[in-house]
Amino acid sequence: MTDRPAPASASPSASAPVARALVALAELLAPGRAAVAEEVLYAYDDPDAYVRTHATRLDRRGIDAPIENLAWIALVDALTAQGLLAEVDWKEDGDEIRRQLRALESRPAVDPWSLADPEDTDGTDGAPLDTAAFLNDAGRLHLDLGVALAVLDIESDCYPLVRFPAVRAGELTPLAARAGFYAAVLGSDGL
Questions:
Q1: Which of 178, 174, 179, 104 is nearest to 142 (CA)?
Q2: In angstroms, rounded to a whole number, what is the distance separating the alpha carbons of residues 80 and 62?
Q3: DSSP 8-state secondary structure symbol assigned to residue 108
Q4: Which of 55, 126, 173, 176 sits 20 to 30 Å CA-CA off 30?
Q5: Rounded to whole angstroms, how far apart are CA atoms 100 and 147?
Q6: Is residue 117 predicted with pLDDT exceeding 60?
């Protein structure tokens, strides 16, 4: 028998402050997709069973036993499975970042880069911007469209990127902090 996550409302920890923050984050980043919150609570409530159930996926991250940030990793993985998160390397080029962000289901109706001057992807010396600078510029372009582009820090050499309505951007960092993690809206907080 495979362990399955219980519905979020049935979670034994659903009333715990950290669990409430994780559920609120899942709802902020994946509105109407209860499976994301359920997966996060599963990792939070029963980390051993979660690791057994998702052993193959977690093995790619070098995780073979419960770890302190397992629920946060579960959030990143659940968002990825829903087509709502792109995980880009710390030294990825702008073209690849654009490609991955354009593939997300959360893409805005208007392509943010259609509003940018092509020269904006270069630094002052004409060389391509480093990844962090490129992402901050991309964040500003997204904010101009009313969309927040944010990073969920998993303490790795990558940038897990998500999008959600900019009118709710102020909720992200405090919710992540209440859950014990760090997230930032790009183009405003910066990297």
A1: 104
A2: 17
A3: -
A4: 55
A5: 16
A6: yes
DSSP-derived secondary structure letter, 53: H
pLDDT grade for 122, boundaries at 50, 70 and 90:
very low
Q: How far apart are CA 160 and CA 157, in angstroms?
A: 10
pLDDT 10s digits, 67-96: 999 999 999 999 999 999 999 998 888 899
Q: Are 145 and 106 in contact (CB under 8 A)?
A: no
* 137/70 Cα distance (integer angstroms): 30
- The neighbouring-strand residues paired with 183 are 152
- Beta-carbon contacts of 104 under 8 Å, excluding residues fewer than 6 positions away, are 83, 84, 85, 86, 163
Tokens of 68: 């302190």
**Contact (Cβ atoms closer than 8 angstroms) between residue 5 and residue 39:** yes
From CA 58, how far away is CA 119, in angstroms rounded?
39
The number of beta carbons lying within 10 Å of the beta carbon of residue 117 is 7
Torsion of CA 155, 56, 66, 21, to 10 degrees: 60
The helix, strand and coil proportions of the chain, stated in percent and rounded to the nearest 5, come to 50, 15, 35
Which amino acid appears at position 169 of this protein? A
- What do you get for the CA distance between the two ends of the chain, in Å? 43
